Amino acid sequence: MALALRTERTEARLLPEQKKRIEQAASLKGLSLSDFIVQHADEAAIRTIQQHTSWTLDDRDRDIFVQALLNPPEPNARMKAAAKRYKERVGK
Fold first, then answer.
1. Would the pLDDT of 90 be above 80?
2. What angle do CA 10, 38, 26 make, to 5 degrees?
């Protein structure tokens, strides 16, 4: 990321051993401490967002879901009543 594009700043308080470990890891990767922290924090943020915004189904659940889409069950009495209430409310 170009330096000119960086306009936000944040701070973090670290334990001395955390800072030393992070500095060592940054050095091993040939990055500045700041670049290392930004890169890894951003990667962790992307992973966290993906984990909280996507579903992962196991084989059994995936098969049940696909079958429900391909062969939906007939609407039961509660579903029919809900559809009727909806149509009455929206005037359709």
1. yes
2. 120
